[in-house]
Amino acid sequence: MNKDVKVIRVKNLYKKFGDFTANDNLSFEVSKGEIFGFLGANGAGKTTAIKILCGLSYPSSGEISVAGFDVYKERELLKRNIGYMSQKFSLYEDLTVYENIRFYGGIYGMTKQEIDTKTNGLLDQLDLQHSRNKRISSLPLGWKQKLAFSVAIFHNPEIVFLDEPTGGVDPVTRRQFWDLIYEASRAGITIFVTTHYMDEAEYCDRVSIMVDGRVEALDTPTKLKEQFNALDMDQVFLSLARKAKNVE
Questions:
Q1: Rounded alpha-carbon distances, angstroms, from residue 2 to 6, 31, 35, 152, 223
Q2: Pfam families annotated for this entry (predicted)?
């Protein structure tokens, strides 16, 4: 992680839908190569914020740049410099492994030569050469998730956004998936990840916890546990939820 290089800058982000405030004055920065956990209960405003950071939605107000690009004026350039993997499996089930890789390489603006050069290396890395001509629908969920992540960073983006990437997979596969995340982070790719597994928050360099559209805590997992006198991140999360309920 290079703390001096900020690849995400968010200052006073507001997003309103009519009278409803989905994101309420969010401010944070994320460093190059950092694994940044973006946590919160359903309805806390995580997905709304991610859509804005990915250039898929406009903020109501605020100053936001991602990979050096302004979310108001440079959305198309922004999209070419990030990767994205959603909770809902993002590859095409009726295409083969090989076809999916080539298709997404083209979507990300890679040349045919770049795609050809990198495809075999990726298949070797994932031990999927034997399955290159199999339809995605025939693969186990764990392999699908690993491939989806690898495709999301196939074009070597500055940042990859992972929205609940390990939902529904077994603990062993989740651990293997995080090995891929660590490897990408060491290569300089910034990881912006949401998860509802609190044990996964422990794997992040820093964690932001949202409650009712606001960032209520942001620090390393160790410091957050110290701050809330908690044994694990589950207890931190529960403490913040109780605090918010009492305030209301």
A1: 8, 6, 11, 22, 20
A2: ABC_tran
What domain count does the chain have?
A: 1
Main-chain dihedrals φ then ψ at residue 219, nearest 5 degrees? -175, -175
Unique residue bearing structure tokens 């109501």:
60
* pTM score: 0.91
Per the CB < 8 A criterion, the answer to whether 64 and 232 are in contact is no
| Burial label, 38 (beta-carbon count in 10 A; 0-12, 13-18, 19+) | buried
Give residue-wise pLDDT tens across range 94-121. Answer: 999 999 999 999 988 889 999 988 998 9
Please, which residues have CB within 8 angstroms of residue 10's CB and are 6 or more apart in sequence? 26, 27, 28, 29, 53, 62, 63, 64
Q: Give the separation between CA 105 and CA 110, rounded to whole angstroms.
A: 5
> What is the domain-level CATH number for residue 93?
3.40.50.300
